[in-house]
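[Q] Does anyone have a clean structure-token version of this?
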Amino acid sequence: MNRKLEVITTYNKKYYDICGKKMIETFIAKWPKNVHLYAYWQEQEPEIFADNVHYVELYKAQPQLKKFVDENKNDLVKCGTVIKKLTGDRTYSFRHDGVKFSHKVFAQTHRIKNTNADILLYLDADTYTHATPNLDYIHSILPEDHLCTYFGRPKLYDETGFYMHNAKHHDALVWAETLEKIYTEGELWTYPLQVDCYTMYAGRQKYPHTKQLDLVEHHGGLGKKHPFVNSPLGEFLEHLKGDRKELGHSRASDFKERFEERNKSIDHWKRVGKYHKYDN
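[A] Here you go.
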């Protein structure tokens, strides 16, 4: 059976300028025209158009997200501020910014509820496509009887720059509702972490008897630091997580040693300069 694939991303004005624009441009350049991208946006109105790129204004599509954000955006603690008990000093921790990281979750749940595709591939706006995607591989890592596919990381929880959802799974709609209720019913604030890495993990724990594919276990040896680019996804996708946005590429140290030989044959990794030692 030839299953239909869609890609999802989301961004605000800041992330669009830093990385989202490139994500869309490289999608248009590299992906086949029968794969469609749904870009959920805030602040930055669409300006790049293609027949297989669709824009969804996130707050209009998900008014319950807007309500959640409005109710919590003025609470410094819920926006990631950590206040030290002894000194009163304040620092920012993304791990506790439940407001910021809610947007990614609600973009995915909206698509799950509204798609006619079989497979949904969520990619952060700080990813971009550097080579033709291997669609056979993408299809292979979400079996028809699995609910989702993810990168599991012990103690760091799910790597949420990438997620896959089986929109035809019998639990798909309930899965989407479960994730949304973590936010709308306040369960989020009872968790030790409020970043989406934890909330997606926590949501999965509610489906212990449903098949879910952990790519770290599936492939083995991807490491916990940057499993995304160590996996076969790295053969055609880049992920500028954290301060890699300033670099414009992942670091050589992100790769496990066993992938160095693979990277010799990938133009992207040589072109960005990390693997110049492999050039003749």
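[Q] Thanks! Anything notable?
[A] Residues 275-280 have pLDDT under 50 and may be disordered.
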